[in-house]
Specification:
heterodimer; A: 248 residues; alpha/beta; six-stranded mixed beta sheet; four-stranded antiparallel beta sheet; 9 helices; 24% strand; B: 258 residues; mainly alpha; globular; binds adenosine-5'-triphosphate; binds magnesium ion
Chain lengths: 248, 258
């Protein structure tokens, strides 16, 4: 589905990605993890064509979307759904309008169909009853869930979730990850999820990618990752297994 | 040492200003490209016209009212000394329509609408809403910038015409009360001596200033980085740059239009 090859990108001298190659096959749920600031968000943005690379390419079903014209790139955008790390909800639209907006822009459905579909997704993320509120009347966790609902409402071929569990309690966090896995199961799409809930991510993903300082240091099934003996992987996993709140 | 530092600083300010002017010019070109054939969001245009034009009416009318009064109070001394009462309408009309109206209303408009736009787009930029639009295959320029540019040009032209009228009304009233210049003398002199070109200059300037404010505020809004403090910086830069650009363009247009 998406193949990123030798991607490097730096912002004003800060190297966010250094030669990352990653293949996400169709229909796979890939969990992406790594320490703070290791380039997870940047990699996701690269995958859907929001960032231009310094070197390397992003192949979307074999088409390099970093070199195509704006029309072709828009076509690629249509196939992606992205949930941004800071939600990116449209503040002057209600929850229902936010979730329905991608359908309104990207599909030919009637207003009633859009409403029904959006309500279904809102209910699915457990926000039934808040559909007429504005984003600034929601809690952080509720906003996050609206963002997930909006990203997946069109059942995009590639769904990218940038830290849907950030700042949530462990139970809600696990529930959100299960919900994303459920969406993937229903829509049979390809999903990339970034999360700092390592154990939760391990339990829902078929593949795990571990980024470290702009490099992909491990990529494979969760079981293989547990066995990995690289010092960086061991350190990351050992830190992640600390009992909650025991990291201080 | 201090001198070379000063020169270096001056140079970097100049470079930054050039880069920003260039950036705004590029934005202007991309806006122009989306106007033929027209590709922009009409719903957003309607929303902008309402919030930028209609809702600025109050502040422009208030400004205009005061401007008219001040104009007559300032002219009072000269009018009285040289016995030019019959020409009060012409003087007030000429100054208001050609110069004071367009510039003052543009500055008010920039403070209200330009600052708001820079803050709005800046917030959208730093909270990834602009990228969110891109991900929905929506071109941010067609969706956000073009409607704002059109709305600001149309709004400022209309507001300037309305504001000029209001300023002249208050000037004629104060002239009547204070200088005993009768209404028909005031309006007679004004209508007789002002040429169509004077009115046209006013409208052209207003349109030009509206475009300047729009492109500047959208440019600074969309190039915001660095979270909430970045939004503050963008608003600040946008208002300052708009004001400078308005004065510079006003100088040259007055020079050219005579
Ligand atoms: N727009 C930008 N301008 C400058 N530097 C950036 C920008 N975006 C990212 N970076 C830098 O690139 C590196 C990777 O950033 P990225 O946001 O991808 O990290 P992340 O893994 O998502 O972190 P987190 O877990 O905190 O979300 C960081 O060092 C960051 O400082
Ligand atoms: Mg991130």
């Amino acid at each position: 589905m998406v193949r990123i090859e030798n991607a490097s990108l730096s912002f004003d001298g800060v190297e966010a990605l250094r030669g990352v190659s990653l293949h996400v096959p169709r229909g796979v749920l890939l969990g992406l993890m790594g320490p703070l600031g290791c380039g997870k968000t940047t990699l996701c943005r690269v995958a859907c064509g929001l960032e231009s690379l310094d070197t390397g390419q992003v192949l979307f079903d074999g088409v390099d979307i970093t070199t195509v014209g704006p029309a072709e790139r828009r076509r690629a955008y249509r196939r992606c759904g992205m949930q941004f790390q800071n939600d990116a909800l449209f503040e002057h639209k209600s929850v229902l309008e936010n979730v329905g907006y991608p359908l309104e822009r990207l599909t030919e459905q009637s207003a009633a169909e859009i409403r029904g579909r959006a309500m279904e997704r809102i209910a699915m993320v457990g926000l039934f009853g808040t559909e007429n509120r504005l984003p600034n009347e929601l809690s952080g966790g509720q906003r996050r869930r609206v963002a997930v609902a909006r990203a997946c409402v069109t059942d995009p071929e590639l769904l990218l979730c940038d830290d849907p569990t950030a700042g949530l309690d462990p139970v809600t966090s696990r529930r959100i990850l299960d919900m994303i896995a459920g969406i993937r199961y229903q829509a049979r799409n390809t999903v990339v999820v970034i999360s700092s809930d390592v154990l939760g991510l391990m339990s829902v993903s078929e593949q795990i990618g571990l980024l470290w300082d702009g490099k992909l240091v491990a990529h494979g099934g969760p079981a293989a990752l547990w066995q990995d003996s690289q010092p960086k992987v061991r350190r990351f996993l050992d830190d992640a297994q600390l009992p909650l709140g025991g990291g201080f | 040492m201090a001198l070379s530092e000063g020169i270096a600083k001056l140079g970097s300010v100049f470079l930054a200003a050039s880069a920003q002017t260039g950036g705004a010019a590029v934005l202007l070109c991309s806006v122009a490209k989306r106007l033929v054939p027209p590709r922009f969001d009409r719903e957003e245009l309607r929303r902008c016209l309402l919030s930028m034009g209609y809702q600025s009416l109050g502040i422009i009318l208030a400004t205009a009212f005061v401007v008219g009064i001040i104009l007559v109070l300032q002219a009072y001394v000269f009018i009285d000394r040289y016995g030019l009462r019959s020409q009060l309408g012409w003087g007030a009309g000429f100054v208001t329509i050609r110069e004071l109206g367009p510039v003052l209303f543009a500055l008010m408009f920039s403070g209200r609408v330009g600052a708001y736009t820079a803050a709005e787009l800046g917030t959208m930029q730093v909270t990834d809403q602009v990228d969110g639009l891109r991900c929905l295959a929506i071109d941010p320029i067609s969706y956000l910038v073009v409607p704002r540019v059109l709305a600001m040009i149309v709004s400022l032209v209309c507001l300037t015409i309305i504001g000029n009228t209001m300023a002249l009304l208050s000037a004629s009233l104060v002239g009547d009360v204070l200088l005993e210049v009768e209404q028909h003398t005031f309006w007679g002199a004004l209508l007789e001596r002002l040429t169509p070109w004077d009115y046209l200059t006013s409208v052209l300037k207003a349109g030009l200033f509206g475009g300047i404010i729009a492109v500047t505020s959208c440019y600074y809004g969309l190039s915001t980085s660095g979270g909430a403090p970045g939004v503050g910086r963008s608003v600040n830069a946008s208002v300052v740059a708009s004001a400078v650009a308005i004065f510079v363009v006003d100088f040259f247009s007055t020079f050219v239009a005579g």
